[in-house]
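**Fold in tokens:**
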Amino acid sequence: MAVVSEAVRAQVLTQAGGVCEYCRYPEEFHSRRFAVDHIFPRVKGGTDDLTNLALSCRNCNERKQDATEANDLGDGENRAAVPPARAATVGKTISRRAATFA
């Protein structure tokens, strides 16, 4: 997991409204600090630009790892592994239901 500055983390936290952008769980109710996830992973050419950063609870971050697609358990289709709120800017998305990251 790449480390971002506290200033960037604060921007991501504000951008996300303090909730995991994948499952919508609030950071304030979690025992561990949430991670800053690279939606399109750095190892696959993703950048540190705010548009590519998402607040992610540990469970979602560990499940996603460096996946760029996920299997939507709602309809079984592979979709871009992006936070649901960002789907309009990326295209297809996984539903708010559980997903199996590829």
In short: The CA atoms of residues 31 and 58 lie 10 Å apart.
